[in-house]
Specification:
CATH superfamily: P-loop containing nucleotide triphosphate hydrolases
Protein name: ATP-binding cassette domain-containing protein
Family: Belongs to the ABC transporter superfamily.
Distance between the termini: 39 Å
Largest sheet: 6 strands, mixed
Number of strands: 11
GO molecular function, one term: ATP binding
InterPro entries: AAA+_ATPase (IPR003593), ABC_ATPase_HisP-typ (IPR030679), ABC_transporter-like_ATP-bd (IPR003439), ABC_transporter-like_CS (IPR017871), MetN_ABC_transporter-like (IPR050086), P-loop_NTPase (IPR027417)
Organism: Anaerocolumna sedimenticola
Order of helices and strands: EEEHEEEHEHHHEHEHEEHH
CATH topology: Rossmann fold
Length: 253
């Protein structure tokens, strides 16, 4: 059974259509990378899946709960109870960390479990310390974001997303704000999460990483899904648009 299903999703900004009839499925434990040039629609798709953007029409289903459907050609979102239930099942790692600057690391991680999910403080902190230990940050619980490197900040962001034990974890270009050395550090952490058997949807420009970690790769161009296939098949594609994109990547490296 699919834990995430998207059907015929459409999204426009003013008169510019950025998502055109997008449909995809993700199974439990599956790792999917979304790739494509800037402006292809991949980040907008991720934001729609997290309700940071509203869709014009289409359907999104998360673990059996309908987030949004279409009635008379317009999107209709579920009530707040259903939407909160969906939020508890999903996590998002932003490209620019989005940590609360006035909270220390421990509170950044425990804020949502305590105040959104109603988890007792002692239990939330126990989980937070376990995550910090797993991510190599056990000595940073009392530190504030300004005292962290970019790589450490992103690892805290990952810990915060994991604290609610989501079924689906989204990454929006998690290394775009990092220098090459710190990029490797964060990618190593993301690779370590594969043992959790959690569905991950990753928007990334790191092609080697995407090829190594993904069960499937989705190539988007001009708001449509051009290919949705295995990494091996994608990198050997005969599709001209795919070949042109991957060719530019190889030229860059």
């Amino acid at each position: 059974m699919s834990i995430l299903e998207v059907k015929n999703l459409e999204k426009s900004f003013d008169n510019l259509q950025v998502l055109k009839d997008i449909s995809l499925k993700a199974d439990n434990g599956e790792i999917i990378s979304l790739i494509g040039s800037s402006g292809s629609g991949k980040s907008t798709l991720l934001r729609c899946l997290n309700r940071l953007e509203t869709v014009d029409s289409g359907e999104i289903i998360v673990d059996g709960d309908i987030m949004v459907s279409t009635l008379n050609g317009k999107s209709v979102y579920a009530n707040e109870t259903v939407l909160k239930n969906i939020r508890m099942k999903t996590g998002l790692v932003f490209q620019n960390f989005n940590l609360f600057p006035h909270y220390n690391v421990l509170r950044n991680i425990t804020e949502a479990p305590i105040f959104a999910a109603g988890i007792p403080k002692e239990e939330a902190e126990k989980t937070a310390f376990e995550l910090l230990d797993k991510l190599g940050l056990k000595d940073k619980a009392e530190a504030y974001p300004y005292q962290l490197s970019g790589g450490q900040s992103q690892r805290v962001s990952i810990a915060r997303a994991l604290a609610l034990k989501p079924k689906v974890l989204f990454f929006d270009e998690p290394t775009s704000a990092l220098d090459p050395e710190l990029t490797g550090e964060v990618l190593k952490v993301i690779r370590s999460l594969t043992s959790l058997n959690m569905t991950m949807i990753i928007v990334t420009h790191e092609m080697d990483f995407a090829r190594d970690i993904s069960n499937r790769m989705i190539f988007m161009d001009q708001g449509v899904i051009v290919e949705d296939t295995t990494p091996a098949e994608l990198f050997n594609s005969n599709n001209e648009r795919t070949k042109a994109f991957l060719g530019k990547f190889h030229e860059a490296v």
